[in-house]
Write a structure and sequence with these properties.
By secondary structure, the protein is an alpha/beta fold. The chain has a single domain, classed as P-loop containing nucleotide triphosphate hydrolases (Rossmann fold). Helices cover 34% and strands 16% of the residues. The chain is built from eight helices and eleven strands. The radius of gyration is 17 Å and the shape is globular.
């Protein structure tokens, strides 16, 4: 989660799920961003969810990640969902209660920005293990993101770690990292949130291109390995692959 929009919550959600899947875990993504869902686009998913009397079946990505998003139900990916708060909350609750997630080790919930209906529904309804806070280096962003940190604390939810996205741009011609959005605030945010720094993600044109093409699962870098290992260390369960508790 993050109080600020446009910081890359969906990207971090997707990369986290992929990193855990590559470590052998059974992983799902619940796209709780009802009015601005982007997870299906990044994973190139267009199939509508199937279902039976028992519930809905999530759509499975190429690498085996189970995904549920409102965009999978729409006639076109650019159709607008114009709903008030209660309907948004109901949809998120149904994605948790009515979807047959199976025996997952990890379920990643991708939240919209802010501290209103959707984050509140998730924190009150889902038995979440904790929160991963996503932010970018700008001071304005950091201020707004701290609102999300305070919300998590008020709801008695553990902050598993913080991720600084768009932290820098690596320029291979000069072998140097350029901090386009200003000096990194990763350590500052880690201290403020009293949580470990899970990672600093660079601005990577190759990753942006893969997301646009729906091929995020093809992305590979040392950052992915570090991200997966950090998440496993941060979760209280720290379970071995295949030992998930979801039914």
């Amino acid at each position: 989660m993050s109080g600020k929009g446009g910081v890359g919550k969906s990207l971090v959600s997707g990369l986290t799920a992929i990193a855990l899947r590559r470590k052998g875990y059974e992983v799902g993504i619940l796209d709780a961003d009802i009015t601005g869902p982007s997870i299906p686009k990044m994973f190139d998913l267009t199939d509508h969810p199937a279902g039976n009397d028992s519930g809905l079946l999530p759509v499975t990505s190429k690498s085996g990640i189970e995904i549920m998003s409102i965009n999978l139900f729409l006639p076109g990916e650019d159709e607008a969902v114009i709903w008030r708060g209660p309907l948004i909350g109901k949809a998120i609750t149904q994605f948790w209660e009515d979807v047959l997630w199976g025996n997952l080790d990890y379920l990643i919930v991708d939240l919209p920005p802010g501290t209103a209906d959707a984050p509140l529904t998730v924190m009150q309804t889902l038995p979440i293990s904790g929160v991963i806070v996503v932010f970018t280096p700008q001071d304005l962003t950091s201020m707004i993101v701290r609102k999300a940190v305070n919300m998590a604390r008020q709801m008695d939810k553990r902050i598993l770690g913080v991720v600084e996205n768009m932290s820098y741009l690596y320029v291979p011609e000069i072998n140097k990292n350029i901090e386009i959005f200003g000096k990194s605030r990763a350590e500052e945010m880690s201290i403020s949130a009293n949580a470990p720094l899970i990672g600093r993600l660079p601005i990577d044109p190759a990753l942006a291109r893969l997301c646009d093409e729906g091929q995020i699962e093809r992305y590979d870098s040392d950052i992915m390995t570090e991200l997966g290992e950090s998440i496993v260390r941060s979760t209280s369960a720290n379970i071995p692959p295949g030992q998930g508790k979801n039914d």
